[in-house]
Amino acid sequence: MIELTLYHRESCGLCHDMLAEIMALKSRYTFALTVVDIDEDPELQARFNVKVPVLAVDGDILCCHFLDRKALLDQLAPA
Q: Which pTM was predicted?
């Protein structure tokens, strides 16, 4: 199963938007989603501070700030 990780912060409007877009895909595609608040980890905060939201697919960064829907769908489409 494909593992998506969304690095975000609670006060980020773009983060909430990206999460909503990802959740809208949940009914059509199979994936696991982990949502990580970077403000709970100083290392992640330093790494992603102004880049959030950041979406990683199986550990590899796919996009920052805005969802790259085409790239994500390419990852989620059955081979």
A: 0.94
